[in-house]
């Protein structure tokens, strides 16, 4: 070969490696873009791309000087260390770039802070310094790994699978609709990567073989794997915990500062807990109450807890003699809620089952809180005793009470006049406190008000303060925080003690039934806030002003209550001190739900469709390698019959790799053929045909594309493959078919050269 040809060959090799480096960067960018659904875009995105570019540039430059692979990887690692130190840890480093012991000590702190933010927060997360450190650092490490696998080890398929897996992580963390554009971009970059790796090979024979075989099959394989994982595997994985609260308040799972707008607007909706009860109606679940209104913000009540092990830790209920009191129990199973408050019905009078942490009862509001524990994974039973007064009893009672705190009636001095004026206007025709409150409830739930999670943001009153309430009363669009805050403040302008409760709507019925009790599931989107007003001799009565949610609180007269006064457990469709149903249904009939559950249980057992779906998905996943290998073999056969001898020769090489025969790059086609014939029982005549075809293709000046030779080479490759499969034990033969090694090991690569040799 002349010096000019040698120089041209070297130039082509460098150009191929440059193209391969660019293709790796493009694929990494495609894998990084889905992360913006989990973390708000910011400077971290630029930093991650800059680090990936620097690492790849360092690797490309090192290879130009023919440095060993280990040296190339070490240089890339050094670039990673210098960049991370300079950008994130320069204050602890020597000369801003040389790590010190203080630098090493700071790394676990940054990682721990990022992990805490991920565990507590909900997507999209704020790009803090610690979170950016983890993402940018992980991007740099991924770049080093992909560069080594795709360029040094010459296994672009394995690198592509890793990139696809990384790109799926954001989809699993924050489920959403399939991003078709992003998926197409990722597929194109992976095709570009595989094609670039093929062209970067210096050996013409290998490049010719790769040109016609493998690329389409690889592309289809990656697409099939990505689709199956995204559509089938992801739903059966443990779903991420979309937090019910953002963690701004005392608890990471329920935000008790009424900053619920961002949490309710989050697209993720996860199951929080499951609930069942022996009551005739499913109750709301409260976490805590907010009575103090200071600085335009509702503050959670601070009260001393009493150990649950104490006698009567919840204290006495507020209902006096003559008021019906029912006794019910509810079982709560926490699925995904990390909170220091255990959601309970009102008023709780007993609780058992809470194990981890120091849990105590708060007698003031009949809630349960912990100083060192979480609800995550807990399961407990609550006894509660709601008051069931008649309509006449409620109307005869005034909304005052010497037992309530002064903070339940306090109003800010600068409260907008509109709030009090509207309260007087709406209640002008009412004669009792209860009638005034129900008039307010009807007014809010009427057609003039609309439930909306978007309007507060657009109109700029996304809060619960007095100014936000006044703006809400003007716009008349908002969510539960606005309805509850407006109702509570308007009640105070009417000189009634009020507070706000944070908790959950009753949930949605499932098909499951335990001990004859239908099971309801509660989702994170059902985080709710509602007002309560204190009535002397009855206690706190909840109201539901939020339009389109829950059920308005009403009471039935004595004449309409069956079994009075000796039947407190009788179902009273419109008698409740707590709103009793989610959505805009009039009421959840638990007896009907119990009958449905019992009927379903008697007619059928386990629904086989989900199980069959999972089984079919597993079968498809297990069959994918065989299907991909068969598709590649057929494409190689078609290419060989069209006159491409390199495709037939690669088919022989991959058949050898599948059964565990080494295919080193240093071995000539004749030597390789001789070894297959002598040691592995390959037919000599067919091997001779295959060798003759590849030698003509490689060395013939005329190009050696012949239809006759193509058919002969294809038939020879097929016969050799069958002979090699027959030469190995049945177990190895099955493994070669269902898990072909040639999908990830390339002929002539390091791994192909070290494959075990199996004698016949």
Description:
The chain is an alpha+beta fold and 760 residues long. The chain contains 24 helices and 16 strands. The two termini are 41 Å apart. Residues 1-8, 202-252, 562-578, 580-588, 600-606 and 755-760 have low confidence and may be disordered.
Total number of beta strands: 16
Low-confidence stretches: 1-8, 202-252, 562-578, 580-588, 600-606, 755-760
Supply the number of helical segments.
Answer: 24
Oligomer: single chain
Which properties best describe this structure?
elongated, 24 helices, 760 residues, single chain, disordered C terminus, 6-stranded antiparallel beta sheet, 5-stranded antiparallel beta sheet, alpha+beta
What does the secondary structure layout of this molecule look like, with pairings?
Blueprint: H1 3-32, H2 43-64, H3 69-88, H4 101-120, H5 129-152, H6 156-173, H7 180-199, H8 204-212, H9 215-236, H10 261-264, E1 271-277, E2 285-294, E3 297-300, E4 306-307, E5 328-334, E6 348-352, E7 359-362, E8 367-370, E9 379-384, H11 391-395, H12 417-426, H13 433-445, E10 450-451, H14 455-459, H15 466-475, E11 477-478, H16 480-493, E12 498-504, E13 508-514, E14 517-523, E15 527-535, E16 539-542, H17 590-603, H18 608-641, H19 645-658, H20 669-680, H21 684-699, H22 707-726, H23 730-738, H24 750-753
Parallel strand pairs: 10-11
Antiparallel strand pairs: 1-5, 1-14, 2-3, 2-12, 4-7, 5-9, 6-9, 7-8, 12-15, 13-14, 15-16
Helix pairs in contact: 1-2, 1-5, 1-6, 1-7, 2-3, 2-5, 3-5, 4-5, 5-6, 6-7, 6-9, 7-9, 8-19, 9-18, 12-16, 15-16, 18-19, 18-22, 19-21, 19-22, 20-21, 21-22
